[in-house]
Amino acid sequence: MKQGLVFKKGYKKAGLFAGIALLAAGIVGFNDDLFQISKNLDVFASVYKEVNINYVDDINSAKLVKTGVDAMLDGLDPYTEFVPESEIEDYKLHYVSTQYGGIGASIFVRNNKVFVSEVFAGFPAQKGDVHPGDQLLKINDVDLTGKDNDQVSQLLKGSKGAVIKLFIKRDNTPQPFEKSLVRDEIKQPNVSYYGMVDGNMGYIKLDKFLENSAAEVTTALTELKKKNPNGIILDLRSNGGGILQEAVKIVNLFVQKDVEIVSQKGKIKEKNFTYSTISAPLEPDLPLVVLVNSHSASASEIVAGSLQDLDRAVIIGQRSYGKGLVQQTFNLPYNSLVKITIAKYYVPSGRCIQELDYTHRKDDGSVVKVADSLIHEFKTKNGRSVYDGSGIYPDLFIKQEKFANVTQALVGKLLIFDYATVYRDKHNKIADARSFTLSDGEYNDFIKYLADKNYSYTTTTEKLLTRLKVEATKDKQFNDIQGEYEGLKTKLMASKKNDLVQHKDEIKQVLENEIASRYYYEKGRYETNFKYDKELAQAVKTMQDKAQLASILKGEGSYKVIGKPVLAMAGKKAVDKDSDDE
C-alpha cells in the first residue's frame, strides 16, 4: 500500500516537474515571439525614419507606409488588406452598403472626355432627362477635361439634397446646355431584377451579398409567390459574394429550421463558428435552381454549395470561383482598418471549396491550385459524391460560349454603345424589352454605320499564321512556303470581311441589349437578354422535367457523382492498390 502511494507521489512530482518544464518552454517561446515582433517593428520604424529624413526628394509619408504594409500583406492572400482612412468610404461602398448621395448615373472617360455610360431608373439623372452617351463638360463649373473616373465620381457624389449643375453636350443638340439636378440618396439594390420568365418560373437576380440582401431576396420571393410559380431560379452568376450571414439567411428561405448551413474554422478557436437556419422557410417545397459561373464566389458559393449538399436545389452553369476563405475587419488607429482572413468555411457535407493554396506557394511566389491528389470526396444528404478544393461544380454543366473577336472589338471600341445612342436619337420608342428585336434591315443599317469606323482586331487564326511566319523565318524556311503563306493570308482576310454576317446572332444580342437599356434601363437589359440565355433556358427545362429533377437530386445514374476530379481518383486507386498488395 505504501509502495503504491509512494509511486503515485513520485508520479505527481514527475508530472509537476514536466508541467513546469513545458510551461517554462512555452514562456520562453512566447517571449521569443514578442522579441521578434518588437525587433522587426523597431527595424521597420527605423528604416522609415531614416528614409523620411534623408531621402533626396520629398516623399509622401502616408503613401510610403501604405506601400510597406501592402507589401507585407501581399505574401498572404489577396483578401487580407489594409484600408487607410482616406479609402474607408470606398471600402464601405464595396463591401458593406452601396449607399451614397449622387445622381444615379455611371460614367466613363474616352480620349480625355467624360461620357455618361448608364442611367438608373428612378434617380435624379433619369428624372432630369440625362442620357447615356451625353458628354459631361463641367460639374458645378469645374472643367472635366483630363480628369479620370475617380475624380469625376467624387464631383458627382455629395450630400443628399444639394444642387448639382451639369454642363452637357449631346450629339443631336446644336449647343451644349446646363441641367440642375438635386442629389438623392443612391442605394444600389442587391437584387437588381426579379420577375416571371418562361414556364411560369420565378426569377431572382442577386448581384451581391451586402446589407439587406436577404431582406431584398425575401421581398422578391414573396412577390413571386403571389403569381403561383412552378419553380424558382436564383441567379448568382458573377456575384462575387459579401456578408456570410446574409448568405445563411437566404438559404434559410428554402431550407427547414435548425439545419447547419456553413461552418468556419481558423487558427483561433474563438473564431470557429457554425451557422444554422433559425426560422421556418418561406418556400421549402418549390423546385429550385441556382445559376453560377466562374465569377460566382464566396457567399455565392456558400448558398450554391449548401443547397447542393442538402439536395435542395439543382446547380446549373459553370464551376464557381473557389473562394473558401472568411475575412473579418479590425479597427486600427486614426480611423483605418485591416481586413484579415481568419478562417476557412465548410459547407454541410464538410468540404471546403477553396481552390488556390496561398500557404504553399512556388519558389517564385506564384500561387498554385490545390493538387488533384489532395482533393477529397464528400457526400450530400442523399449520398451524391461532391469534392473539395475546386469551387462548386454544377449538377448540370453548360459550356460558356465566348464572343467572337469581331464582337469583342465592337464592344471594346464602344461602337455598340455609340450606335445605341444614334438609334435612340432616331426612335422615340421601341417594343417592350422582352419582345424587342432588331430586324434584318436594322442590322444592315448597323453594318452601314460601321463602314467608316475602325474596329480592327486579330483573329486566333491570324495570330497562328503570324507565329508560323516568325518560326519559319527563324528556321530559314519561310522563302519555301511564302507563296502558300500569302495565299492563306488572302483567304483569311476575305473570310474576316464576312464576320459581321457570320456572327450576326451574337452581335445582335449585345446590340439589342444596349439599345433596350436606353429605353428600359437595367430592367430592359435583363428582359431583352432572356431569349438568348442558355443557362436560364436549361433551368426552365429542368424544372419542367419532373423526372430529371428528381433523378438529379436523388443522385440516380450519371447524377450520382458531381465534378469528379480524374487525377485525384487515379491517385486514390493507386494508393488503394498498394494497400491491397500489403
Word description of this protein:
The protein is of the alpha+beta class. It has three domains: 99-187, PDZ domain (Pdz3 Domain), CATH 2.30.42.10; 191-400 and 549-559, 2-enoyl-CoA Hydratase, Chain A, domain 1 (Alpha-Beta Complex); 405-532, no CATH class. Helix content is 43%, strand content 19%. The strands form six sheets. Strands 3, 4, 5, 6, 7 and 8 form a six-stranded antiparallel beta sheet that branches. Strands 10-11-12-15-16-23 form a six-stranded mixed beta sheet, with helices on both faces. Strands 1, 13, 14, 17 and 18 form a five-stranded antiparallel beta sheet that branches. Strand 7 and strand 8 form a beta hairpin. Helix 7 runs parallel beside helix 8, helix 10 (415-426) crosses helix 15 (504-529) and helix 12 (460-474) packs antiparallel against helix 13 (478-496). The model is unreliable at 1-12 and 567-582 (pLDDT under 50).
Mind sketching the topology for me?
Blueprint lengths: L1 H53 L6 H14 L6 E3 L4 H8 L3 E4 L2 E6 L2 E7 L4 H4 L7 E5 L2 E2 L5 H8 L6 E7 L7 E6 L1 E4 L3 E7 L3 E6 L6 H13 L5 E5 L8 H9 L7 E7 L6 E4 L11 E5 L6 H11 L4 E4 L7 E8 L3 E11 L9 E2 L10 E2 L7 E3 L5 E3 L8 E2 L7 H8 L2 H12 L13 H10 L10 H15 L3 H19 L2 H4 L1 H26 L4 H11 L1 H9 L11 H16 L1
Parallel strand pairs: 11-12, 12-15, 15-16, 16-23
Antiparallel strand pairs: 1-18, 2-9, 3-4, 4-5, 5-6, 5-7, 7-8, 10-11, 13-14, 13-18, 17-18, 19-20, 21-22
Helix pairs in contact: 6-7, 7-8, 10-15, 12-13
